[in-house]
Fold this sequence. Notes:
Blueprint: E1 8-11, H1 26-37, E2 41-44, H2 50-60, E3 66-68, E4 73-75, E5 82-85, H3 90-103, E6 106-110, E7 115-117, H4 122-131, E8 136-137, H5 140-144, E9 151-156, H6 159-171, E10 177-181, E11 191-196, H7 202-212, E12 220-224, H8 230-235, E13 238-241, H9 247-252, E14 255-256, H10 264-272
Parallel strand pairs: 1-2, 1-12, 7-8, 12-13, 13-14
Antiparallel strand pairs: 3-4, 4-5, 6-7, 6-9, 9-11, 10-11
Helix pairs in contact: 1-10
Amino acid sequence: MTNDQYKLLVLDIDGTLVGHSGEPTDRVRAALQAAQARGVHIALCTGRPMASCGPIARGLGLHGPHVVFNGALVKDPENGRVVLERSLPMAAARRVIAYCREHGICCELYTEETHFVEQDWRESRLHAISIHVTYEFGDFDELLKLGEPVKLQVITGDDRARKLVARLADDMRGEVGISWAIPMPPAVDMECVNIVHPAASKGEAVKALTAYFGLDQAQVMGAGDAPNDLPLFEAVGYRIAMGNADARLKAMADYIAPDVNEDGLAAALEDLLLR
Length: 275
């Protein structure tokens, strides 16, 4: 590879761009700014909502569309242009909500603007701190009358919840897209389970971004760490797995960076793009 081959860099946030501090480090910021100065477009690609992703992008001086809600929305937060949007079908949303209510599992409902819970879940409180976005309380049945949600998220905090969500994933295979992400502290020992439109994924979103910029897959580099980044890896030409990444991503990777808490992303970009 040559360091001028890549024109689009797609980055996961939790566990890739940010570690336990919850913020990009100065070294990571400098590497991203240097990559942009060389003409590389940088897009964030996350399960987080735009309310969380947008401020991070602004703080880093990143312009253009970003992937949020685990691929259900690709949008430029500066001008509002939508590249791709897929909401969760109503019947599937109702089925997931009913299952979570029945089994007492933390469930969050996301619209493009905000997200809601029906009760004061510990998991939601900690996740809100992690992503720097507060939630609202609302009756999901009433909210669904306003239209299809963009995403549901189930947060598991123990083995019981994880087993129940695994059963739900098996039962609804093909009806929805389900993927697992690992949040940053203080949401430790938890999993964020993204439930979206069956055709929505980080991979499909990256394909839309690639077309938006008029590029081909060979010109796209991606970095990630969690299982929901597997489709992202399938859609890019060069794959960077973090040192803290899931073993499946490391097996697919072209390059394994140091741990996110050791400025792994910056080290990779310095080595691959900034020499």
